[in-house]
Amino acid sequence: MNPNEVLHEHNLKRTGCREGIISVIMESGNPLSENEIRDRLSGTFDRTTFYRSFKTLQESKIIHKIVVDNQLVKYALDNTITQKQEHAHFYCEECQSVRCLESIPVKTPPLPDGFKATETEVIIKGLCDKCQKNIHA
After folding, report:
1. What long-range pairs does 27-30 form, CB within 8 A, spacing at least 24?
2. Domains contained in the chain, CATH given
3. Mean pLDDT confidence for 17-39
4. pLDDT tens across 75-132, in order?
5. How far apart, in Å, do the first and last CA atoms of the chain sit?
6. Beta carbons of 94 and 131 less than 8 angstroms apart
7. Which end of the chain is more exposed for a tag (fewer CB within 10 A), N or C?
8. Is 100 annotated as a binding residue?
9. Which residues pair with 40 in a beta bridge?
10. Residue 92 annotated in ligand binding
11. According to the annotation, is 128 in a ligand binding site?
């Protein structure tokens, strides 16, 4: 699925900024921060246009937040777009990358009567394979 198809499927107007944000995330293959997305976005979109487009994509559930901690948030395409099941994420404390761990499914735990989960997140923190090799080199 390409950015234009994603926007069409969500009944959103096609704009260069929206398409660009989706393209950058798709091409990365890993979740990115707002700054990383903005830095990789080609074109001259002002801050207001970027943030409005970003907010629209979040509200439309095209992209979703991965909250690593109170100072670091990364974004990825929503699982409804990628057809992935809920999964864990790995945060490398050295290079600050976030990777999807699709081989580790996340299931919502049973909740007491009257409770309803809207989201379940698992973030595993440590060193990625590349940083682990660099430390032992």
Report:
1. 30/76, 30/97, 30/98, 30/99, 30/100
2. 3-136 (1.10.10.10)
3. 93
4. 888 877 887 788 899 999 999 999 989 899 888 889 999 999 888 889 999 999 999 8
5. 40
6. yes
7. C
8. no
9. none
10. yes
11. yes
